[in-house]
Amino acid sequence: MEEVYRRRRNRWRRWLTPPAPLLHDPRELAVDAPLGRWNLYIGSAGTYAPGYVNVDLAVMPGVDVACNAEQLPFPDAVFTRVECDAVLEHTPHPERIVREIERVLQPGGYAHLVVPFCHPFHAYPHDYRRFTPQGLRLMAGGLEVVTEGWRTGPTATLLVFVLEYAKLWCPWRPLRAVVHGLLGWLLFPLRYLDVLLRRSPRAYILGNHCYLWLRKPG
Questions:
Q1: I need a labelling partner for 91 at 20 to 30 A (CA). Which of 6, 70, 130, 146 fits?
Q2: Which residues pair with 152 in a beta bridge?
Q3: Residue 174: inside a domain
Q4: What whole-number distance in Å separates Cα of residue 110 and Cα of residue 16?
């Protein structure tokens, strides 16, 4: 009976949770970077990514290997593709993670880095920094830059800050959840404005998350 109640709670939670206040730019995944036999996903955070060895700091459902990405427990040149999604801001030494990615990547393999630029503080377990595409390129080392861009744009920045600002006025966690839900449903249609703003050459000024595709010379 307890399992039935748990499933019902999860179902209601999914129904009541508003859509994300952001849209991913489809050009981010237009790069020809095929998966290989072995692929690595750093920062899965309990969300299982099929086709990858899923790595995160803590043991949780969906995580195959719990480790610090600054010291990956894998041999050299084993992965065809490496995803590092919203991880580098949480480590005091992001360049060490990029060097580890370079080490475990096969020659000819691809690495995909995603980081926040204009985004609220979010500790996991800490939050150290923000990045621009230029800052990411400085850490490329021996990896070749294939392309770069913005995953999420200025409207996403505006909406996530409005949501967090509203919750600052709520002293109790349950109330913050209610405010997030109500405002989330009210504001999320505005995210489609980013479809238009992507055309602006100045959209990067308030970009939300940026990305970089790198290739290991073969």
A1: 146
A2: 209
A3: no
A4: 37
Write out the residue range of the structural domain in which residue 138 sits: 21-153+201-215
Q: Which secondary structure element, helix H or strand E, spans residue 79, and what is its range?
A: strand 79-85
Q: Is residue 175 part of a domain?
A: no
* pLDDT, tens digit, 9 for 90 and up, residues 138-193: 999 999 999 999 999 999 999 999 999 999 999 999 999 999 999 999 999 999 99
Cα–Cα distance for residue pair 178/25, rounded to 1 Å? 29
Question: CATH number of the domain that 121 lies in?
Answer: 3.40.50.150
In a domain, 32, yes or no: yes
- Please tell me the predicted confidence (pLDDT) of residue 132: 95
Segments in the chain forming alpha helices (H) = 2-16, 94-104, 133-138, 154-168, 173-187, 193-197
What does the pLDDT read at residue 3? 65
Q: What token pair was written down for 29?
A: 């995944």
In a domain, 61, yes or no: yes
Encoded tokens for 48: 């299982």
Which of 151, 153, 152, 178 shows the shortest CA–CA distance to 167? 178
- Do residues 170 and 176 make contact, with C-beta atoms less than 8 angstroms apart? yes
Q: What tokens were used for 141? A: 């080392």
11-69: per-residue pLDDT in tens?
Answer: 777 777 899 999 999 999 999 999 999 999 998 776 778 899 999 988 888 889 999 99
